[in-house]
């Protein structure tokens, strides 16, 4: 890949669109906290550091208190971040140097920062960018790998990769790009198993398209096109288990519909945490504490609740949460629900793990009965899930499989694409389904779309029935079969 200015800009736009939430992952309130957290993050995950630092900063809120720390006590507080003996030595050296050379303040100068104990060029850049907003592009293990895979640099050291990136990208974009590349490395361009099929930069990556060897592994990656992958995908649940207690008693669900399912299966007494979007059944809000959102749960809160199982779903929760849980030694299970067959597999898996096989088998039997009459291929149907920008549920998603089984023929690009006005017009659907969540589509939106697509049928449908897999699958299927008057079951 020859990187022209236009291609570099294209890459930046793709990363901005894919990772709008990219930011510094180390919790900090001031430059001192950030420099300490960054020192602790060496050979350790940000999640683990974020769990460690609240107690550390409570005891040592500034360089003056840290300088007086007893090494044994300091080591005990940071032990879980690894290499604690050396890190404690560096933190004490840092605190004393800040007091002696900078009146207890963290300097905003690269050279002065890099001269502090435990602070190399990378840490200095992280602090400059995130604590002072001074453009810098620290190259960590993720950026090093991603930059080389994308062919942005062929250099063999982080320092040289940093120099190459700084040459290629405008100075004012360095901070944002730094976070975006880290997010991309964590969420998509994994060291061992890059998810090239869903990579926002695939069109710009020779390694991902199998045209060049992967500089990270030295081998050619298997080329996967999303459409092919979906066709070949086994019709079962793609789940991952870490060390799991055979009968978990302290469960945290990060998936709203799974929370509801557990309540339906009378397992709610085992729930010790949920997300703030887990709002059904209603009483769950008063009885089970929230651990934050589905995309950004509070890891400290999760760890404090001492769960013996956290339940995730791959579209609902970012992969980084599973990585963080692994780092914290918390068992988790990740469901992947794209079809009704996935639902059956998930019910059986959850039933087995949670000792609820009777409930699971009853669900499977009910759905199998409902699926026996097969619908004929029906009208070309687009399911919209968001407005400004328009987003749709691709044919390879759960809502579309539900619609397919109700006699609609889902159309549109794969997964959860954004659609420009032109792309929406070009799809020219026969039917548009407008679920009332996650976007609150209402009659006004339906009327607007009726004007725009005069020959299409527009149906406003219950968003929870359409998107809450596992707990409302049968309800959703029955609802959509009623919505489709032309549904011919054979
Ligand atoms: S296409 Fe694959 S190798 Fe290339 S950046 Fe994306 S995930 Fe990484």
Describe the structure.
- The chain is globular, with a radius of gyration of 25 Å.
- The protein has helices at about 5-20, 30-40, 45-60, 65, 70-80, 85-100, 110-115, 120-130, 140-150, 160-170, 175-185, 225-230, 255-265, 285, 300-305, 320-325, 340-355, 355-370, 400-405, 420-425, 445-450, 465, 475-485; strands spanning about 240, 250-255, 270-275, 310-315, 330-335, 380-385, 390-395, 410, 420, 430-435, 455-460.
- It contains 23 helices and eleven strands.
- The protein is of the alpha/beta class and about 500 residues long.
- Strands 6, 7, 8, 9, 10 and 11 form a six-stranded mixed sheet that branches. It has a five-stranded mixed sheet with strand order 1-5-4-2-3, sandwiched between helices.
- It is about 45% helix and about 10% strand.
- The protein folds into three domains: about 1-190, Orthogonal Bundle (Endonuclease III, domain 1); about 250-370, Rossmann fold (3-Layer(aba) Sandwich), CATH 3.40.50; about 380-485, Rossmann fold, CATH 3.40.50.
- Helix 1 packs across helix 11 and helix 5 packs across helix 6 (about 85-100).
- The longest helix has 19 residues, at about 85-100.
- The site of iron/sulfur cluster has 14 residues, from helix 9.
Major pleated sheet:
6 strands, mixed
The top-level CATH class of the largest domain is: Mainly Alpha
Name the CATH homologous superfamily of the largest domain. Answer: Hypothetical protein, domain 2
Bound ligands: iron/sulfur cluster
> Class by helix and strand content?
alpha/beta
- List low-confidence stretches: 224-240
DSSP helix count? 23
CATH topology of the largest domain: Endonuclease III, domain 1
- The gross shape turns out to be globular
Average pLDDT over all residues: 90
Distance between the termini: 52 Å
Radius of gyration: 25 Å
CATH architecture of the largest domain: Orthogonal Bundle
| Beta-strand percent range | 5-15%
Helix content: 40-55%
Counted up, domains total 3
Total number of β-strand segments?
Answer: 11
């Amino acid at each position: 890949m020859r990187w022209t200015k236009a291609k570099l800009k294209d890459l930046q736009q793709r990363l901005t669109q894919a990772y709008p939430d990219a930011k510094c992952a180390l919790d900090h309130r001031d430059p001192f906290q950030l420099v300490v957290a960054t020192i602790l993050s060496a050979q350790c995950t940000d999640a683990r550091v974020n769990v460690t630092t609240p107690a550390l900063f409570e005891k040592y809120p500034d360089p003056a208190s840290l300088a007086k720390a007893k090494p044994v006590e300091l080591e005990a507080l940071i032990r879980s971040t690894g290499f604690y003996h050396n890190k404690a030595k560096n933190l004490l050296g840092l605190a004393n140097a800040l007091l002696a050379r900078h009146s207890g303040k963290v300097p905003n100068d690269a050279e002065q920062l890099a001269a502090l104990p435990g602070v190399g060029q990378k840490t200095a850049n992280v602090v400059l960018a995130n604590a002072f907003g001074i453009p810098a592009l620290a190259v960590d293990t993720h950026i090093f790998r991603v930059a080389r895979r994308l062919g942005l640099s062929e250099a063999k050291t982080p320092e040289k990769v940093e120099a190459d990136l700084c040459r290629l990208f405008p100075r004012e974009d360095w901070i944002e790009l730094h976070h975006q590349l880290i997010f991309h490395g964590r969420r998509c361009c994994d060291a061992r198993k890059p998810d090239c099929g869903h990579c926002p930069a695939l069109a710009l990556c020779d390694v991902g398209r199998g045209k060049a060897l992967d500089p990270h592994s030295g081998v050619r990656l298997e080329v996967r096109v999303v459409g092919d992958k979906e066709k070949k995908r086994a019709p079962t649940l793609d789940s991952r288990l870490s060390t799991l207690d055979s009968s978990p008693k302290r469960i945290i669900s990060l998936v709203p519909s799974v929370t509801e399912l557990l309540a339906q299966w009378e397992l709610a007494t085992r729930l010790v945490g949920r997300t703030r979007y887990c709002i059904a059944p209603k009483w769950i809000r008063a009885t089970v504490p929230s651990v934050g959102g589905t995309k950004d749960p509070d890891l400290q809160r999760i760890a404090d609740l001492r769960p013996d199982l956290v339940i995730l779903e791959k579209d609902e929760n970012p992969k980084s949460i599973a990585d963080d849980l692994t780092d914290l030694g918390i068992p988790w299970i990740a469901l992947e629900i794209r079809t009704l067959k996935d639902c059956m597999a998930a019910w059986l898996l959850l039933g087995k793990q949670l000792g609820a096989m009777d409930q699971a088998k009853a669900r499977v039997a009910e759905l199998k009965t409902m699926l026996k009459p097969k619908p004929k291929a029906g009208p070309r149907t687009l399911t919209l899930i968001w407005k400004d920008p328009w987003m749709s549920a691709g044919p390879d998603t759960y809502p579309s499989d539900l619609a397919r089984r109700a006699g609609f023929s889902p159309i549109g690009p794969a997964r959860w694409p954004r659609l420009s006005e032109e792309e929406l017009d070009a799809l020219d659907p026969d039917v548009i389904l407008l679920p009332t969540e996650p976007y609150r589509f209402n009659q006004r939106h339906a009327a607007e779309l009726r004007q725009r697509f005069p020959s299409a049928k527009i149906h406003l449908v219950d968003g929870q029935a359409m998107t809450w897999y596992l707990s409302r699958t049968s309800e959703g299927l029955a609802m959509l079969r009623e919505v489709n008057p032309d549904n011919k079951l054979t």
